TrEMBL record:
NCBIfam families: cobT_DBIPRT, PRK00105.1
Keywords: Cobalamin biosynthesis, Glycosyltransferase, Transferase
Function: Catalyzes the synthesis of alpha-ribazole-5'-phosphate from nicotinate mononucleotide (NAMN) and 5,6-dimethylbenzimidazole (DMB).
Presence of keyword Glycosyltransferase: yes
Annotated active site: E323
MF GO annotations: nicotinate-nucleotide-dimethylbenzimidazole phosphoribosyltransferase activity
E.C. numbers: 2.4.2.21
Protein name: Nicotinate-nucleotide--dimethylbenzimidazole phosphoribosyltransferase
Species whose genome carries this gene: Nocardioides jiangxiensis
CDD domains: DMB-PRT_CobT
One matching Pfam family: DBI_PRT
Amino acid sequence: MSEVLSSTVASIQPIDAEAVAAAEAAQAGLAKPAGALGVLETLSLQLSGIAGTCPPPVPVKPAVGVFAGDHGVLAQGVTPWPSDITFVMCNVFQAGGAGINVLARAAGASVTVVDMGVAGPFTEGTGAGATLVSKKVRPGTSDLAKGAAMSRDEAVQALEAGIAVAQQLIDDGADLLITGDMGIGNTTPSAALIAALTGTPADVVTGRGTGIDDDTLALKTSVVAGAVERIAPDADGVDVLAEVGGFEHAGIAGFVLGAAARRVPVILDGVIAGSAALVAQKIAPEVVGYCIAGHRSFEPGHRIALEALGLRPLLELDLRLGEGTGAALAAPIVQASARVLTEMATLESVMAGGE
Ligand SMILES: Cc1cc2ncn([C@H]3O[C@H](COP(=O)(O)O)[C@@H](O)[C@H]3O)c2cc1C
Ligand SMILES: O=C(O)c1cccnc1
């Protein structure tokens, strides 16, 4: 493991148990029946533990990182879409017309698109909808049906790029990170990562992605099963990522590790983020304390990933777009949970006729 990755992993601490206990006590004293704000209460405990203080600061500057990459496994016919769409969508993100632009605007979040390995001629710059930055490792992974998707060095480079993006956004004032992805074909490596890291059969975790017929689903499932078979039982997180992952998965895993190292909460999007979070968990188990599952997508592997992470999704709306859309939708819920601890009157003051 190289220096940036190992020092980032070393600085990830468990969330602060004392701050969690203080938030639990504070919640118990608010002007409501115990537990009446449900998951908002548990979220506020988590935010307190992440910040190491109660009440936690209310996140005011959410930032979406959309990690983009292309996939050699398209040669197998696992998706009906051509890889050009990855590049085309990155330009749409920059112009502001994509699903994530709309939902990020609704959440007051900035959008940064990171080229991790897009095949097209990606250029850096800022548009009306997003800032594009290049961390290109290579213009697309190798075909994971035939061998490792990337080398171990490339996987580390991509993880470190994700860490750098998280650090830069936090240095620029972001206090709530949101994961996003763009990469035609990326539900195939996502399924493979989930199968490999949870020990679940390929046919349980492989789904229809952007929408494929039964024959293509059978082919995709066999590609996933074959790739997972190559993974040695003692493989570490970087090995698994290199064998069957994608450059955007690596970027997201690094982004999550980078957020945790700086004690900033990170909202995970759909199945791509779920599979990347499993990689991050394998590398640094405490990282999960900093993760919030924004939603559960329609893709079957996402349920398995969230169960293995022990995360309960905030929303379940049958979304299956990716880009960070479901995570951005959940950002106001995360902000609201911190506001409750900060702004709600106590039962004691209400009973005394105050506030
Ligand atoms: C126009 C378009 C916009 C998208 N935005 C996100 N995805 C999502 O779908 C792709 C994964 O599905 P599969 O593995 O089936 O190819 C990824 O690019 C993901 O980000 C899109 C897909 C399309 C076609
Ligand atoms: O779970 C997701 O976010 C997802 C599902 C299908 C295609 N793209 C993304």
